[in-house]
Design a protein that fits this description.
Blueprint lengths: L5 H9 L3 H16 L7 E5 L4 E5 L2 H5 L11 E3 L6
Antiparallel strand pairs: 1-2, 1-3
The chain binds zinc ion.
The site of zinc ion has 8 residues, from loops.
Length: about 80
């Protein structure tokens, strides 16, 4: 599963718990990427009565509805942390 070159292999072989260490590093990365993005911007399709959440103001302002392909209204919303 893991490909090492001779140098890193030699080093890894000396580590007490290489597999455990690798698992821990991967778990750390996974928890980082699993962190939810902040959807602080919203747009609204008047036609479909649908709300959309966005991570940036630009996305919210220029969002087209997934169902009717119309440009959604940008909604100014106060998002409290
Ligand atoms: Zn729509």
């Amino acid at each position: 599963m893991i490909t090492l070159d001779p140098t890193t292999w030699e080093f890894a072989a000396k580590m007490d718990n290489f597999s455990g260490w690798v698992r821990k590093q991967i778990a750390k990365e996974m928890s980082k990427s699993a962190k939810p993005k902040e959807f602080n911007f919203e747009s609204y399709c008047d036609h479909c009565s649908l709300w959309y959440a966005h991570t940036s103001e630009y996305d919210a302002k220029f969002h087209t509805c997934e169902y009717c392909q119309r440009l959604c209204s940008y909604m100014l919303s106060e998002v409290t942390e």
